[in-house]
Design goal:
The protein contains 18 helices and 2 strands. With 311 residues, it is mainly alpha-helical. The protein has 3 domains: 104 residues; 62 residues; 98 residues, Ankyrin repeat-containing domain (Serine Threonine Protein Phosphatase 5, Tetratricopeptide repeat, Alpha Horseshoe), CATH 1.25.40. Strands 1-2 form a two-stranded parallel ribbon.
């Protein structure tokens, strides 16, 4: 596809979104490029998802589109709720449905009127249980069909991310047992460190809970703890710092430590927490002979470091 298509797509997305011939021919990577240069309203986005779900797009590709697309929801909470509810129906994903219900609850927005349902029978409950088990088996079957190589990293990540969203511990454990968590992308990331770089604690945490190694170092010698310190995710930092065999002073390839990177990005609460860890080296130096104190951008951060012994 030429760059001219991208310009036309951004000017009139409806023309392409509702053209099944176009959607059937376009490569997923090209479609994502067009979406990156466009902003869709809610109706356009839902039309797109409904149309691609009827064609050759599997759930992994649809999740890929979700990661890349920009949607204008008019800053209205009810539009966000409608978006989440529609996504849950299209993807058959209870996570989005539950999230929309939670937003209705905290914002005191009533549920749309529905016909009152009769209580479920034992047979109906059993059928739902069997359907859930079949779905888990389908996800695992889809995963084991994928060759474990760099080119398939994104697909594998998508499936494991789906497992974490659906709290599917059984499939996640099987995936780790079969070694799908050890696949690396072209930057040396495993699924765990890629999840950390996307600030995806839900996936990263489930991987570790199901047996993945929290201390893995990628090509740049950055583990999940280091990356979450960079992202400023305090909950994630606390989780990974509590894991066995995790050294908060472990440096990356340029001798940057978790404390240095958290200071550099001015994540004050993360720095506060790191300074409570036993053995934290506040005066460690990187390859340029710089300390955490030299990375501080605010007076508050400098005062915190000096108070705890930085020189």
């Amino acid at each position: 596809m030429k760059s001219g298509v991208s310009s036309k797509f951004s000017q009139d997305p409806d023309k392409f979104i509702n053209d099944n011939s176009f959607l059937n021919k376009v490569q997923i990577n090209d479609l994502v490029k067009y979406l990156n240069n466009s902003t869709l309203n809610l109706n356009q986005f839902l039309n797109l998802l409904q149309n691609v779900s009827k064609l050759q797009y599997d759930k992994i590709n649809i999740y890929y589109i979700l990661e890349q697309v920009t949607i204008d929801l008019d800053n209205e909470p009810i539009r966000v709720i409608e978006f989440l509810f529609s996504i849950s129906n299209i993807l058959n994903n209870k996570f989005f449905s539950n999230l929309s219900k939670y937003m209705r609850y905290i914002l005191n927005i009533p549920e749309p009127e529905q016909v009152k349902e009769e209580p479920q029978s034992v047979e109906e409950v059993q059928d739902q249980k069997e359907e859930f088990e079949e779905k888990k088996n389908e996800i695992l079957e889809e995963l084991i069909k994928i060759e474990k190589k760099k080119d398939n990293f994104r697909k594998i990540y998508g499936i494991l991310d789906q497992c974490s969203n659906e709290n599917d511990l059984e499939t996640m454990k099987k995936a780790i047992e079969y070694g799908y968590n050890d696949i690396q992308d072209y930057d040396g990331n495993k699924i765990l460190t890629k999840a950390a770089s996307k600030n995806n604690l839900n996936l990263a945490k489930m991987l570790v809970q199901c047996g993945d190694d929290p201390s893995f170092l990628g090509d740049s010698k950055r583990n999940a703890l280091y990356i979450f310190c960079r992202e400023g995710n305090l909950e994630a930092v606390k989780f990974f710092a509590s894991q066995p065999n995790i050294d908060p002073n472990s440096p990356n390839v340029d001798n940057w430590t978790t404390l240095m990177i958290a200071v550099k990005y001015d994540h004050y609460e993360v720095v506060q927490y790191l300074l409570t860890l036993k053995g934290i080296d506040i005066n460690a130096k990187n390859v340029w002979n710089e300390t955490a104190l030299q990375q501080a951008k605010s007076e508050r951060m400098r005062n915190l470091l000096i108070k705890n012994g930085a020189v």
